Amino acid sequence: MSKVNDIKNMKRQQKFITPTQVLAETVGEESKEEINLSSNQEIKQPRKEVRKVERKRVSFDLRTDLHKELKMQALIQEKNIYILIEEALEKYLIENKQ
Fold first, then answer.
1. Mean pLDDT of the chain
2. Which among 11, 19, 30, 81 could disulfide-bond with 34, CB atoms 3.0 to 4.6 Å apart, if both were Cys?
């Protein structure tokens, strides 16, 4: 029974690190304490109030290579995919307005 408790305790002690923290981290320079401090600071920051925008759900096919790149950019920029698509469409529509 103690083995089970040991495993449970080890699991409880593991720290959660987001993929964005891993991508932003320089290899070998940050200690575990610095990672914990930065994650705690992120949690304590107040959330920005965003005004509600009416949205319409759409469905379309997209090339897999574009989708993969879009997911990576969303992760790097810490934004949702739909926000990146909206920004790109807005830019396109402004540039091509006649």
1. 76
2. 30
